[in-house]
């Protein structure tokens, strides 16, 4: 469904992404792991369109999207959630989700009709809130939510655009065990109808959820395969043990 | 809501009261204030709602005025031709300036809008045939046709009031529309707005152009009001004055532009036209130095009351939920 | 069009550009390090010129008045920074724009109150009132040559200061990453005040040197401020090198444009059009330059921050 072919990116003298070729199959949960600073978020940013690739191609559903702008990729079915929560803090949960639905449904160059009249938007937003476990917090101001709830809203915003491929960038960042369990359940529910490219540090979640795992070290893909294969791969162990020794 | 109705009733009754008191000068002052209220409200759309700190709105204001003035000098007096032309010219200017400026962010955006506005100033001032630095006088007000005339103070006031009311209502509808919600979202979190699928640049440009067009209308009105098109309308001090009005009245609030315009022009009028004995005793020439008062008031507002008058009236702090 | 005219205009452009650089350097440092947009920079230029005129009148000597004016303006700048501008560093750009705009209004009025509304006289030093003959036969005002000399000297000194001294390194570190500079243990507040005072002194130098050529009047700061903004936008915020390149570009394009565009237009346009179009395009030449630069490099030619 998603193919990265020889994607590279540098920032000045630093190579952030080094000739990465990667493939995400339809319907799978594909995890991207690697030590800190490996370039995982940079890679995600290039897939979502926020960063331009220096060389290489990105193909989504057979279409070359390398030059496509971020908002156009969203319309094509590719959505992303952020590692550092990036929501509309002064809007309520319902307004956040309704906004994302609005982005997907028709033009917003509409200057006269009151938004409040569009109940279809709020209905769908309500349903989304239910899916991510925020049904009872619809009128809460997003900036005031607990961290776990904000991360759930993060995913909700990405879901609202009805993606076919969901890029989840460390959804469990900063979460305790209970909140992580909730998030894992959410991804389990989603995998039935979406393909997921998941960046995570939480190894429990990764090994529970992933069909395949790819490992990024210093911008390079060092291994890619089933969780079993990755678990015993010597390169991967070196990369992670090395990281632990240095830490 | 009832406050709004009361205010409008007062605005409607105002000229009649002034006529009764044989103080028609105030009607003209009132029209002037309303025109600047329109201009400030137009800036509020871009700045307050859209979050685009445009330091060059005088360009659109002045372009509208000059369009009317130049057309009048060439013999086109009809309101139905001149005013839409003014709006169109201002909108086009906003389109070009916005298209280039909105590719930048932060301080760059502010400086670039300032620089482009100054460019527009120099462009118009270099037109020697249309007054150059001395400005362009206009022979009478625009002609509405149908045997009507806008020469009288009362007729003019009511027309301006009607346009002002229409504009504020439009802004009200806009802020509650889909477009308004997107603009607000962009102001709140631009990256995420783009990430959920909104082409941010296009929305910002649209907002900027609408804002510029409305400023152009205000420009057409001010040319008619003064009977004279001054290049100072295009000067960046004018841009700054409009910004002062917006922050004074309340950034991003429906009545922010209007309240700010009334307050600032009221303050200037008070200082210039009335002599406060106790102030005169302290500083004999104080009326020549109104700028000092304006500057001090502005500084005070910025440092102490950033919500402006509308914020104080609404009694809400803009820290948590949206206004 | 003769070689003499070309040479003369180039020198004029250089002179103007170097003075613009003095203003732009202080402005870009304040932007780069404190992330603050300071409209009152032009007011410091104006105050510098006025103080220079007063000191020159009081002491009867240009050369005595100059250091006095620089010091006094630096003090004014430091005082302004300590009392008012400090509060603005953490605020948003709109607030900074409005607050410093308010300072412009107040400064203009204060100057009007103290010195009156009429422009005042500032004369070039007596020894330099006349022209000098340069190699090639060009007669050029010796005072303008002085300006060029002073400008080059200051540019060199600034380069030395910013690239070779410890203070300069701190300034550059602060320009590219303020948090980093703080982490390095720099007393950031004193650094800010010092940078601001330096910027004020540079403004005063420009004002004092340009005073004999341009008029010393209220509002003189605003016009040149916008040009300084254009310089910084072209050169890149936070970069002294960018400020120099930008200033020279703007100085030469502006001066050259005004001198040669009307002639150029006159070559292939009918006279009525040329006399209007020439000066019109010349006055907007630098803005067109800015637009072109921005189209290719939206962050300017040498942005300090990544």
Task: Summarize the structure in short.
Chain A is α/β, with parallel strands linked by helices. Helix content of chain A is 38%, strand content 24%. Chain B has 323 residues and is mainly alpha-helical.
| Number of strand elements of chain B | 2
- The percent range for strand residues of chain B is under 5%
Which segments of chain B are poorly predicted (pLDDT under 50) over 5 or more consecutive residues? 316-323
Q: Biggest sheet of chain A, in brief?
A: 6 strands, mixed
Q: Biggest interface: chains and residue counts?
A: B-C, 44 and 43 residues
| Distance from first to last alpha carbon of chain A | 36 Å
Order of SSEs of chain A: EEEHEEHEHHHEHEHEEHH
**Percent range for β-strand residues of chain A:** 15-25%
Count of helical segments of chain A? 9
The Cα radius of gyration of chain B reads 20 Å
Shape call of chain A = globular
The sequence of SSEs of chain B as H and E is HHHHHEHHHHEHHHHH
- Total count of helical runs of at least 4 residues of chain B: 14
Q: What structural class do the secondary elements of chain A suggest?
A: alpha/beta
Number of strands of chain A: 10
Major pleated sheet of chain B:
2 strands, antiparallel
Give the C-alpha Rg of chain A: 18 Å
Overall pLDDT of chain A: 86
Write down the overall mean pLDDT of chain B.
86
Describe the overall structure:
The complex is a heterotrimer of chains A (247), B (323) and C (306). By secondary structure, chain A is of the alpha/beta class. Chain A has helices at 40-48, 70-76, 93-104, 119-131, 147-160, 177-190, 203-209, 227-232, 234-246, and strands at 2-11, 14-24, 29-33, 55-60, 63-64, 78-81, 165-169, 195-199, 212-217, 220-225. In chain A, helix 3 packs across helix 4 (119-131), helix 3 (93-104) runs parallel beside helix 5 (147-160) and helix 4 (119-131) crosses helix 5. Chain A is globular, with a radius of gyration of 18 Å. The two termini of chain A are 36 Å apart. Helices cover 71% and strands 1% of the residues of chain B. Chain B has helices spanning 2-20, 25-49, 58-73, 79-101, 106-125, 153-175, 178-188, 190-195, 200-226, 236-249, 256-273, 277-282, 290-304, 308-314, and strands at 136-137, 228-229. The longest helix of chain B has 27 residues, at 200-226. Chain B is globular, with a radius of gyration of 20 Å. Chain C has 306 residues and is mainly α. Chain C is built from eleven helices and two strands; from the N terminus they run H-H-H-H-E-E-H-H-H-H-H-H-H. Chain C has helices at residues 3-34, 41-59, 62-83, 93-115, 142-164, 166-176, 178-183, 188-210, 220-235, 240-268, 271-296; strands at 131-133, 139-141. In chain C, strands 1-2 form a two-stranded antiparallel ribbon. In chain C, helix 1 (3-34) packs parallel to helix 5 and helix 1 (3-34) runs antiparallel to helix 8 (188-210). The radius of gyration of chain C is 20 Å and the shape is globular. Classes of the chains: A alpha/beta (247), B mainly alpha (323), C mainly alpha (306). Chains in contact: A-B, B-C. The interface between B and C is large, with 44 and 43 residues.
